Amino acid sequence: MTRPFSFATVRLLLGMGLALIFLQSLLDGRFHYFQVKPDASPFAVGLQFLAEHNGVTWILLLSILMAFGLAVGLARRWAALWLWMAWLAFFDATPIWRDTDRILVTWLLLLFVLVPSGEPQIRHWNALPSWKVAPLFPFLSTFIFLASQWGLSLVLLQGESALRIDHFWTELALAPGWVQFLANLLPKAGLSSLIGWAPGLLFVVALLYFPMRTRKWALFGILFFHMARWLAGLALFPLGSLLLVWSLWPVASQEKHKIVVFFDGVCGICNRFVQFLLAEDLSGHIKMAPLQGKTAQRKLGERAEALETVIVQVDERFLERSDAALFLAKSLGGGWAWFSLLRFLPRGFRDFCYKLVAANRYRILKPAETCPIPSPEQRTRFLA
Fold first, then answer.
1. Which long-range contacts (CB under 8 A, 24 or more apart) does 102-105 make?
2. 9 backbone dihedrals φ, ψ, rounded to 5°
3. Most buried among 82, 119, 255, 268, using CB within 10 Å?
């Protein structure tokens, strides 16, 4: 099952990405003359009529507004339906082997049309208790589709796109300073071959190990593949890869630990943070306790009254501020685990950003006047 906040995050990324794409199309005027539009569009007649009557500009403007609506979850299904038709009309008219991501965006928009509303949106933060989506079939089919189609495009990297890679090396060799020095040290022929074939090998490994718990290979394959496509000049519409943001990749890695999150029981942002944890922690191994409760008084003593931060107990040790937030991200697994990479930033900088949010938490989100009633299952997650 896809977790609600993970689903909302993909929706936000897709909406903002589409808004930028349609805005760029509006500014550069690429669709103002119908002659530049391929005849493969399913709405060719309508587009020609709009082009002759200056209607393309209004369609693009409305598409930008719809993309923002999709991003924040405002009339999500209607916005996705409009964007699906606009995407088919303007972009999804290239051969499959040339730009796979355009087709994947079409699939992703259809998914947002068909899935009922209920995930976190701008009008309500908490997900509806009965909401769930399990797009396992489109996910598996997309994964196989990517492995085959991207594999074909990787083969093409050895042919027509090899000139683009050579051009990339030429530009590096002309770059000033240390960039030119490093470019001259790199084995150009070997790296060009690596760019072409290594991502394909990683995808084969991902397919072979797909039923197992080594799915991180697929994530590395996806990341490495995008690097290769960027170097080859093919990464024009990477939004389709959002279909691969599966909420169980990677799996939660901290289930063996005893984790307790102490939160400010009167802090609006912390209450919402608790709702986030309840929705995203599918394994249910993270427990929560208010700073004003007995458990916090017993574990933290007088520190509980002076704390202005979320504090996390991991077995017998305590984490605060950014260390606590990044540990929780890793504990949740899924796409949130990528935020744990921020631990490589200096702790002073991370804690400064955290304190800035903590000092203004009551301004960012006012304390909730009423708290949602937890379900019997959720009650077991709270400590007094």
1. 102/237, 102/240, 103/240, 104/142, 104/145, 104/146, 104/239, 104/240, 104/241, 104/243, 105/14, 105/18, 105/237, 105/239, 105/240
2. -65, -45
3. 119
Which residues lie below 8 Å from residue 335, measured CB to CB, with a gap of 6+? 6, 9, 245, 247, 249
Tokens of 86: 């606009």
Q: Which two tokens stand for residue 348?
A: 């002073």
Q: Quick check: 279 pLDDT over 50?
A: yes
For residue 173, report the phi and psi dihedrals to the nearest 5 degrees: -65, -25
Question: Is residue 17 exposed (0-12), middle (13-18) or buried (19+ Cβ within 10 Å)?
Answer: middle
Distance (Å, rounded) from C-alpha 336 to C-alpha 189? 37
pLDDT tens-place string over residues 234-256:
444 455 555 555 555 555 555 56
**Strand pairing class (286-290; 259-263):** parallel
Q: Which residues pair with 318 in a beta bridge?
A: 313
Q: Mean pLDDT across the chain, nearest whole number?
A: 68
pTM of the model: 0.64
Q: pLDDT, tens digit, for every residue of 38-70?
A: 454 555 556 666 656 567 788 888 899 999 999
8 A C-beta contact, residue 195 and residue 203:
no
- Distance, CA of 231 to CA of 144 (rounded, Å): 24
Q: Report whether 261 contacts 315 (CB < 8 A).
A: no
End-to-end CA distance of the chain: 30
Give the integer Cα–Cα distance in Å for 29 and 133: 38
Output phi, psi for 37, to 5 deg.
-90, 125
Q: CA–CA separation, 326 vs 336, rounded Å?
A: 9
